[in-house]
């Protein structure tokens, strides 16, 4: 069925509800979109821009417009409209994170392996954080370099140090070494890579996506949530896998351990990446922004919404 007068920027699901936000971010983090060629993504962008200009190609259906918007949101920066590099896209986080986290959890016994996988992980994180930065709060190459080196050094120092410390520890304890290194590095990497958001604030909107201003408090809350989610997303896969591995039947099938571990990590990543949207009560915002919202909207806006990132 052809569509005319379609507003492509109206959320497909109700963003004021948890399930609506969950469906929205599950949609744009769909890893299958990472397999599409750039030409297909550019076609989707062209269709989105045509729709915004009020010129929908004849015969275009509503479902085609929804899919084009899905591809656009998954691959193009929301501030600049530029196509993002593949590794930094939301849609690449599940397969990329699965491979790297699985490697860190599987190869943790030797120092060279620890150093290699922690370097790969922090390089991946740095690129993701840079790609998904707030374009309105630019970060300089020096700041990027300092954030990358600091986070990588923190991860390596923690991982190598704990690796030596746990040489005689039970395997269960030793398996938490990569997790401890990732946790400490994320506490450094993310705030430093997104420091401009902490200094200048991030955009907040009402439930319909109307921009209300910028908030530093929202930035602090969002980045804190990102750090916590990055730290905890690997934990379920690690703990569940270790328990399952100790079961008699699974313990004997050693070749199955690696793939199972990666699958469990992927399940955790899929869940947490779908929860990228956050909210905050207007009463908890900065006084100036709170007064501005009350002046323009009265009591009709009780909560603001913002994308906390990955």
TrEMBL record:
PANTHER family per UniProt: SIDEROFLEXIN, SIDEROFLEXIN-2
NCBIfam families: mtc
High-level lineage: Eukaryota, Metazoa, Chordata, Craniata, Vertebrata
Main localization category: mitochondrion
InterPro entries given in the database record: Mtc
Record's keyword terms, sorted: Amino-acid transport, Membrane, Mitochondrion, Transmembrane, Transmembrane helix, Transport
Protein name from the UniProt record: Sidoreflexin
Transmembrane segments: 260-282
């Amino acid at each position: 069925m052809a569509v005319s007068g379609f507003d492509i920027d109206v959320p497909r699901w109700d963003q004021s509800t948890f399930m609506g936000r969950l469906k929205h971010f599950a949609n744009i983090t769909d890893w299958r979109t990472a397999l599409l060629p750039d030409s297909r993504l550019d076609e989707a962008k062209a269709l989105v821009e045509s729709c915004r200009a009020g010129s929908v190609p004849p015969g275009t259906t509503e479902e085609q417009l929804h899919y084009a918007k899905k591809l656009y949101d998954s691959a193009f920066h929301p501030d600049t409209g530029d196509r993002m590099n593949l590794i930094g896209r939301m849609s690449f986080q599940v397969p990329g994170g699965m491979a790297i986290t699985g490697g860190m959890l599987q190869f943790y016994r030797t120092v060279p392996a620890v150093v290699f996988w922690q370097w790969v992980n922090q390089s991946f994180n740095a690129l993701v954080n840079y790609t998904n930065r707030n374009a309105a709060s630019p970060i300089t190459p020096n700041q990027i370099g300092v954030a990358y080196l600091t986070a990588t050094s923190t991860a390596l120092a923690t991982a190598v140090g704990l690796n030596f410390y746990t040489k005689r520890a039970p395997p269960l304890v030793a398996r938490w070494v990569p997790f401890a290194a990732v946790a400490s590095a994320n506490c450094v990497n993310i705030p430093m890579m997104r420091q401009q958001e902490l200094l200048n604030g991030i955009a907040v909107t009402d439930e319909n996506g109307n921009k209300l201003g910028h908030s530093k408090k929202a930035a602090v809350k969002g980045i804190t949530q990102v750090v916590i989610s990055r730290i905890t997303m690997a934990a379920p896969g690690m703990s569940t896998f270790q328990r399952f591995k100790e079961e008699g039947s699974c313990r004997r099938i050693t070749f199955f351990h690696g793939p199972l571990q990666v699958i469990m990590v992927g399940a955790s990543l899929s869940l947490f990446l779908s929860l990228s949207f956050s909210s905050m009560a207007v009463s908890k915002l900065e006084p100036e922004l709170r007064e501005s919202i009350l002046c323009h909207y009265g009591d009709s806006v009780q909560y603001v919404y913002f994308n906390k990132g990955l």
